[in-house]
């Protein structure tokens, strides 16, 4: 199994959910409003008067076969919206209760 963490501009949040629904990804935990700043480019998303936008984040545990299609779809969404920002990372996970 894989854990996928993603952070994106709130403007992309609904599109991320649509991608997940289309790919059958159901198990996740999300935070709809959080602050952040990219590592190299883009404006901070701090929810302030100066930097009013906010980010959203999501952690999903997926089957191995779901990881590559989900990451590819997220990359496509990011490429289509470079000014907004979306970052996603995955790692191996194991064990459940």
Description:
By secondary structure, the chain is α+β, with helices and mostly antiparallel strands. 29% of the residues lie in helices and 31% in strands. The chain has helices at residues 13-23, 64-80, and strands spanning 2-9, 28-34, 55-62, 86-92. Strands 2-3-1-4 form a four-stranded antiparallel β-sheet, with helices on one face. Helix 1 (13-23) runs antiparallel to helix 2 (64-80). The protein starts with a strand and ends in a 5-residue tail after the last strand.
Quick recap:
The chain is of the alpha+beta class and 97 residues long. The protein is 29% helix and 31% strand.
- Helical run tally: 2
Strand arrangement across the biggest beta sheet: 2-3-1-4
> What proportion strand?
25-35%
**What class would the helix/strand composition place it in?**
alpha+beta
Major β-sheet profile:
4 strands, antiparallel
Percent of residues in helices comes to 25-40%
Roughly how many Å is the radius of gyration? 14 Å
Give start-end ranges of low-pLDDT stretches. none
Q: N-to-C terminal Cα separation, in Å?
A: 14 Å
In total, the number of strands is 4
Q: Which whole number gives the mean pLDDT?
A: 91
String of helices and strands: EHEEHE
Assign an overall shape.
globular
Descriptive tags:
97 residues, 4 strands, globular, 29% helix
Sequence-ordered SSE layout with sheet pairings:
Elements: E1 2-9, H1 13-23, E2 28-34, E3 55-62, H2 64-80, E4 86-92
Antiparallel strand pairs: 1-3, 1-4, 2-3
